[in-house]
Structure formats: C-alpha cells, structure tokens
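Supplementary Methods, section 5.1.

A reviewer requested that the exact input to the structure prediction be made available. We therefore reproduce it here, unchanged from the version used in the analyses.
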Amino acid sequence: MPILRTSHETRRGGPFHPIRTLLTRSLCLRLLWLSVPVAGASWARAADAPQTLLDRKEVSLDGEWKTIIDPYETGYYDYRWQPYDQQHAPPPAAYFMDAKPRSSADLVEYDFDASASLRVPGDWNTQRRELFYYEGSVWYRRTFTSGLLQHGSRAFLRFGAANYGADVYLNGRKLGTHIGGFTPFSFEVTEALEAGDNTIVVRVDNRRTADAVPTLDTDWWNYGGLTRDVRLVTAMIGRDCERACVILWSLANETPVSEARTAFLRRLAVRARALDPTRLLGAAMEKRPKPGDPDTQIVDDPLSASVDVMSFNEYVGWYDGTPEKCDRVRWEIHSDKPVIVSEFGGDALQGRHGTRDDRWTEEYQAYLYERNLAMLDRIPGLSGMSPWVLVDFRSPRRVLPGIEDGFNRKGLVSSDGLKKAAFFVLQKYYSERAAAIH
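The structure derived from this sequence is encoded token-by-token as follows.
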C-alpha cells in the first residue's frame, strides 16, 4: 500500500490549544471497519462517503500507551542522519519496528514493554513532571488484537489530533505523516492489518518552527502528544462546513500589511469562498494611530475589499494605558462593512481583590470591561465582539510569581472554573443588548 499523506502536511510545527477540559474528552482514535466494496473504490471516496451506524464498527484504542522519549531522534535517524522509514529494509534500531531480541546475543537498545506509559487522549506535559516543558519527539506504542476482516470490508485508523507532527506505523509499516495539531486525520489499514496481534507506533513531535502554525513566539502552552480535536479555521472548512456554530471563517490574525501578505490572503479568501460560499469571511486586521492624534485608531487594511466584516484586536486599558483611556479613544473604520472586535480584555487573578486601580485584581478587570464596552458601543457599525478569553490558559510567557505562574489570566473564568467579576459585567451587557433588540 502506498504511503498516504494528509492534505494538512508540512514538516514540523507548534502547539495545541490548552483548555484543560478539551484534554479529558475522548480522543477519536479508533479502528473503523467500513462495510463497502473494495474493488473499484478509492480511499478518498470511501473516507468522504457518509456512513450509517449500521455500516460501521468502532474499536476504541484509548487508554495507556507505552512511550519512549527521544530528544536526539535516535529511533528515527541512523548515525548518518538518514530516516529509517525511508530505507528499503528498516533495521531493528528503528523504534517503529518495536523489535525484541531474538536471542540473548541480539542488540536492541530500546524496549517499549519496559518503558513508562502515557494516557491517550492527553498531553505529555501534565502527565509527567519531567515533560512539562519538553519539546521534541515522543514515541507512542499500543498493541491490539484484530479478527479477520470480512470480505469486502475496509479498515481505517483515525486520530482525533496529534500535536504537532505525527508519523504513524502499523506492524512496522509506515502509513503516513500528518502535520497540524488541530485537525483529525485517518489512514486506511486494510492491507496492513493482521489477523491476530498488531502494533501501532506513532512518533509525535511538538517542536515549534518559524513557518508553522502557530509560529515560534506564542502566548499559550506548547502541549505535545496524542490529544484530541481542536479547531483551526481555513484547514477545517471541508470538515466543519455543516456545523451551525461556525458563523464565519477568519483568514488571519494580526498580520502586518505588505504586498506579499495581502496577495496571499486574497488568494486564500477566494479559496475559502469556493469551499464554503454560504459563510462570511473576516480577518483580525492591524490598526494604527492617526498621525497627530494618537487617541484616534484607524483600521484601513487593503484586505478589507476581500472580506465581509471588519475585525481588529484591541487592548486599551491593559497594554495601552489604563481603563480611563477608553473614554478618549475614537475609532475610524475605513469601510461601511459590519465591525466585529475580535479580541479585547485584560488579566486578573481569580480571588485577588483591591480597588479598580489595582492591576491584576478582579476589580481592575471588571472596570476595564465596563470602560471597553462603553468605548466599543461608540463604533459605527459594531455588530459583534469576542472577548479574549473565556478561560485562563497555560502560557510559558507568563512568569509573574503568585499571579501568572505560567498562566495567561485574561479569562473571565479561572482555570478551575470559577467566574471572575468581569464575567458578570459582560453577562449584564449582553442581557441589556438582548432586551433592547426585543
């Protein structure tokens, strides 16, 4: 069977969205037996075809997987730095071979059976203290027993998510590579599956690179491992176009204006509309102060001609002055299209109290929201907003002891699920807006 590569493939990349509750739900990692004819049917057609519950049998592979930490890529490259999986006959030294000594004289320098385990689904950062900041490769291995496939049946191995790059092997045979920590992927294993014992090995690599999504400098935790579904915009149009909760596709976030950037995003907009002509397009655009009037912010991105809504991120009162500045700031949106503020907010440690002038307190965050909401209401054409963010999340950039402790504290809710004062400010605002509409 030829090696199958998914449409989201590049080479290596960045982090998984960190909200804790996402990690506790079941990973879509399972074998699917589809009762469709094999002859004359391609994998792509079969994978895209709708299946009824009666057509499909699922076997969950969630649970404990044996793991090997491999910071030097010992199990992937030989001593000449040539990948083992590109060799005609990979040696036992390749970890995906899951080799065992055939005699007491055999040299095999790894042993999955004797190695530690990690839970799947889950990140490796929070399961083992020594992996908290780890960025690199971890090998996962799971064994299972399969019966003989019925005539005309096909089998698929499906992953909900692996952050960030994943090389997948079944019984020492490479199925393919997936790049992208935010999308599910699958491989057909009809020909590789054996009646009896089977071994799945997955090499997961969460290293960040400059050309990955996201890039080297991020503001959330770089989780690694066999995780589960997280959402990404343009790469998931084909998968999520029927989801009612998706109201628009966002093309980019805070990308500096240049000819090359604008040309690329315009092409991306054309592609997005071809994939889903029913939804709006947007992008979080850059803003700039008006010359001679720093209290006036201008949004005049040339990309505006290619999108349906004007969006931008603003942090007046947090990174830009104090909350009182909101009363002076004016916005010039050089378009008559609807406006959606894609990010605004500030930090507070849940349970930390003081006056509204004391940064990091719930009172400061609540006051910041009050002044921001009043400022945003003055924007002509305001049609929506997306406060950043609902829940506190881990970020290695956030190191202030006793307050941040490795968390971005902009959440309206703490990482333990406790609502901050600003939550109720926003709740009241939404309720009043809804009452005014009715």
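The two ends are 60 Å apart (CA to CA). These observations are discussed further in the main text.
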